[in-house]
Design brief:
The protein is of the alpha/beta class. It contains 16 helices and eight strands. 50% of the residues lie in helices and 10% in strands. The protein starts with a strand and ends in a 5-residue tail after the last helix. Residues 1-303 form the Sulfotransferase domain.
């Protein structure tokens, strides 16, 4: 059982796809809290947005108790007990289940409003299929960019078999990638505030993990730059640490999707899809794609995070 805690554009989809190839049958739950927190993330006390606006959890669905309940139902393969807001993620991100096209209509709000026996049966059939996939799996992976490491200690207490992968990336690379997908418009937004909020959040999460003692062995710190420095070697070390296998399929997939060649090189702009590209090149693209002025502004707001990651070698395999 593996839980990936990451941030938008840290390479979490790539890492999730890599983990999926570490066992014969994998049950992969992609962003279960997408329908719960939306574009925000949950820390110990609040639901916080990327502009640093934090609000108290809105109702039971966003409560800490419900968060643990959702994780428990997924890990126990009791998906029929999940709220609709979580289940709709199974059909939104179709590569997660491989069955979503048949279930897309069944879980649409328009179809559900009918309340007919047909709609109920179709939804039940979809969930039963997902539960079967889950029960037959050799490993379970949950990936989320919506949970802080504030919960890491309590989550490991609640699920002792679970390993948490805390995935980080150079903030300059994250920001460069977010600019590409128009997540941030540096011409219109208060960019310095945006940079500061991102880096403060990551700094807090890293310090939280570093302060953990007894259960540190259940947390794998992973840097995207470290993983892609030598992708084949990094993948072998990483998979070994999480208890999965480096297989022929793993190597084939890595060669296909993370090693650059003239025929497969493409721009890496999609939010949720792993494209054929050079992962090492992607990791360091910010150095040539960001202006020196913008790099200076990011360094000014994120120096504390950059220094911490460098000095502590956080995420080194």
């Amino acid at each position: 059982q593996i839980l990936i805690l990451a941030y938008m554009r840290t390479g979490s989809t790539f890492v999730g796809e890599l983990l999926k190839r570490g066992a014969k049958e994998i049950h992969y739950t992609f962003e279960p809290f997408w329908g719960v927190y939306g574009r925000a993330f949950r820390n110990k006390k609040d639901v916080c947005h990327r502009n640093d606006t934090c609000l108290a959890p809105d109702g039971e669905l966003q409560s800490t108790e419900k968060m643990f309940e959702i994780l428990r139902h997924i890990l126990n393969c009791k998906l029929s007990l999940l709220p609709y807001e979580v289940l709709k993620g199974f059909i939104t991100f179709e590569f997660s289940t491989g069955y979503s096209k048949k279930c897309l209509v069944a879980f649409s709000e328009k179809f559900m409003l009918r309340g007919s026996n047909e709609s109920t049966k179709r939804r039940k059939s979809c969930v039963e299929y997902w539960e079967q996939l889950c029960r037959n799996s050799d490993a379970q992976i949950i990936k989320s960019i919506r949970l802080s490491t504030d919960f890491a200690d309590d989550v490991i207490r609640a699920f002792p078999r679970l390993k948490i992968v805390h995935l980080v990336r150079d903030p300059r690379a994250i920001i460069n990638s977010r600019i590409k997908i128009k997540e941030i418009d540096i011409q219109k937004e208060d960019k310095r505030s945006y940079f500061k909020n991102l880096c403060n959040s990551m700094y807090h999460d890293i310090r939280t993990v570093m302060r953990m003692t007894g259960r540190r062995k259940n947390i794998i710190q992973l840097s995207f730059e470290e993983l892609t420095k030598n992708t084949m070697r990094g993948a072998k070390r990483f998979l070994k640490r999480v208890g999965l296998n480096y297989t022929m399929e793993t190597e084939y997939w890595l060669k296909k999707y993370s090693v650059q060649n003239g025929k497969t090189r493409r721009k890496h702009k999609e939010s949720y899809v792993v494209k054929k590209t050079d992962s090492k090149e992607i990791a360091h693209a910010w150095k040539s794609q960001l202006s020196s002025e913008l790099i200076g502004e990011i360094n000014s707001e994120c120096g504390h995070l950059i220094n911490l990651m460098k000095k502590s070698e956080y995420g080194r395999l």
